[in-house]
From TrEMBL:
Sorted UniProt keywords: Membrane, Repeat, TPR repeat, Transmembrane, Transmembrane helix
Listed transmembrane segments: 6-25, 79-99, 119-137, 143-162, 216-233, 263-286, 307-326, 332-349, 385-403
InterPro entries, alphabetized: TPR-like_helical_dom_sf (IPR011990), TPR_rpt (IPR019734), Ycf3 (IPR050498)
Residue ranges of TPR repeats: 433-466
Name this protein carries in UniProt: Tetratricopeptide repeat protein
One Pfam family named in its UniProt record: TPR_1
Matching PROSITE patterns: TPR, TPR_REGION
Highest taxon, organism lineage: Bacteria
Organism: Herminiimonas fonticola
Signal peptide (from-to): none
């Protein structure tokens, strides 16, 4: 059978496996950031702008365009699935080409057909592992992460053409590789370090230093303007805490003394992230779904004062130096080293900002996961095909089932946050208030008001300045006709945010339900003044009613003066 037919069979198998995994979950609900995108008209605004010089514009355009054309969430999920399959395809083709080159060097006496066969099998196994991996679900099954899918796809295409420039002596491919780098970077700014990762793979190919240097220099020169453009658009997040709720988390880290220093927050964040680099690798090797969730929390103080925190940092800093040294050995060793440098360089963006609100984000690891796959197939090249296939079958079955478990956890917003809450090692972990808050909102939608009040109370206990927690607890109390408690929470929410018109609107509802018509009019008028047009309807309704004195209907609440 011709080599290209093997590739067609392998790529068809990837389509079948990924489709069997993801298609049953097309009807999953909107979760997390998806809610903000699709529950308002903003998604249709994105459909009007295919491109500008800000990252993420084109991926969001595809979300909006698919919504306009198809009008369904399922249609957008099909697009995400197609992109995930394309990533697996390009990864397969890239692995096959890199493995063929590596095996030709490591096994110079092996028959060419045998080398091609081995490269095809190893590449297929690596691409399959990527396609059905449980952690890949957090990129492929999460609509808001269309940015990650495009960035990964274009990054792999950039590597493909960059590789071919050396393999087939095609200088024009360097330009194409730089173009795909630009597309990757404008899809997600986290791909900014890709050129350095690509350069490492050039060591697989023979050639004079001069020819290698010219191609590498041209590639870096072409990539530089795009990198500078994107960096300047995002420079405000470098060394800072750009996360919206980080201000509620950072004060809780009072026991880490360095946090009070000017650069202390960034230093602590970098130490944490350097250690997390190895945790990401561990979770991709052993995807323990008993721990994985959409919002993973860690005890920062425990990590900071642990014996292994700084050795991890040292190893993180020294490992690329060691790996670059072994690149000289060429062959499968160089492929392993190239894979490591790919994930190491792309991971560096995690150190660029202060990350405490979202310290460990599984969906971003989708971007540098191809590096893990390169390392995986390089190790597999040392194993006989027979034993590798025998081992791979049960491993892939387990991966498939674990990935289904993760997709099941994406079924609804409520299930996502219940899953995240169930994975918490401790109810008092820093940052867990967001999990309780979101689970409380899910309970509120399910009309499980008592459970919602309990979760909002936990949020308030951990982060007393989160006005949304008071507001939502007031909604739950109002639904239970606990008007005094609802009014108290609304007053606290209003003190924290005097510009939210919904707080005053709900305050009017509570007062009206309690018979405090005059006070309700004041609340509705304030809400209207803040821009809530619905408040006018309530004012008109109250004006049509027969004027009467305040009626004290509740035994636990008096009308405000």
């Amino acid at each position: 059978m011709a080599p290209y037919r093997y590739s067609l069979i392998a790529m068809l198998a990837l389509v079948i496996l990924a489709s069997f995994l993801y298609l049953p979950f097309l009807h999953n609900g909107l979760i997390f950031d998806d809610q903000g995108l699709f529950s308002s008209g903003v998604i249709y605004d994105y459909a009007q702008t295919p491109f500008d010089f800000r990252p993420r514009t084109f991926p969001y355009f595809t979300l909006g365009f698919a919504s306009v054309v198809g009008g369904t969430i399922e249609g957008n999920r099909v697009v995400s699935l197609a992109l995930h399959i394309l990533c697996a395809w390009v990864l397969y083709l890239l692995l096959r080409a890199l493995l063929t080159q590596a095996l030709n060097i490591s096994r110079p006496n092996e028959d060419a057909k045998q080398t091609c066969r081995r490269a095809t099998i190893f590449a297929f196994l690596g691409a399959t592992w990527f396609a059905i991996h449980p952690i890949a679900v957090y990129g492929a099954g999460y609509l808001a992460q269309r940015t990650i899918l495009f960035a990964t796809l274009f990054s792999l295409l950039s590597l493909w053409f960059f590789r071919r420039a050396f393999a087939e002596n095609r200088a024009a491919d360097v330009i194409t590789a730089a173009l795909f780098y630009a597309m990757a970077l404008f899809s997600k700014e986290h791909a900014i370090m890709l050129p350095l990762a690509a350069v490492a793979l050039a060591s697989l190919y023979e050639g004079s230093f001069r020819s290698h240097f010219k191609r590498i220099a041209l590639y870096l020169l072409l990539c530089l303007p795009v990198a500078v453009t994107v960096f300047l658009s995002k420079k405000h997040i470098v060394s800072t805490s750009y996360e919206p709720d980080a201000a509620n988390i950072i004060p809780q880290l009072f026991d880490i003394a360095i946090m009070s220093k000017p650069w202390g927050q960034w230093v602590v964040s970098m130490v944490m992230q350097a250690g997390f680099f190895f945790d990401y690798i561990t979770f991709w090797i052993v995807p323990d779904v008993r721990v994985l969730s959409v919002d993973m929390r860690f005890d920062f103080s425990h990590i900071w004062f642990s014996w292994h925190a700084f050795p991890k940092v040292i190893f993180f800093l020294l490992s690329p130096i060691l790996v670059i040294y072994f690149l000289r050995q060429k062959g499968v060793v160089a492929l392993f080293c190239g894979g490591f440098l790919y994930c190491w360089f792309l991971f560096l963006t995690e150190l660029s900002s202060v990350r405490f609100q979202e310290p460990f984000v599984l969906y971003r690891s989708y971007l540098w996961a191809p590096g893990y796959v390169m390392m995986f197939v390089a190790l597999c090249a040392r194993v006989s095909i027979r034993w590798l296939v025998i081992t791979a079958i049960p491993v892939f079955v387990v991966c498939f089932l674990l990935a289904r478990d993760r997709l099941t956890s994406f079924a609804t917003e409520a299930i996502v946050w219940k899953d995240a809450a169930s994975k918490l090692e401790s109810a008092s972990l820093i940052g867990s208030d967001r999990i309780y808050y979101n689970r409380g909102r899910a309970y509120l939608q399910e009309k499980r008001y008592v459970e919602a009040i309990d979760d909002f109370s936990r949020t308030i206990q951990m982060s007393p300045k989160v006005y949304q927690a008071y507001y939502n607890r007031a909604l739950a109390s109002y639904a239970l006709k606990q008007n005094a408690a609802a009014l108290q929470d609304l007053d606290r929410a209003a003190l924290l945010n005097q510009k939210d018109n919904l707080i005053q609107y709900v305050r009017g509802l509570v007062l009206e339900q309690n018979g405090c018509a005059d006070a309700a009019v004041v609340a509705y008028s304030t809400s209207l003044a803040l821009g809530n047009k619905m408040a006018q309807l309530k004012l008109d309704s109250l004006a049509q009613k027969t004027p009467r004195k305040e009626i004290y209907l509740s035994s636990d609440m008096k009308c405000p003066a």
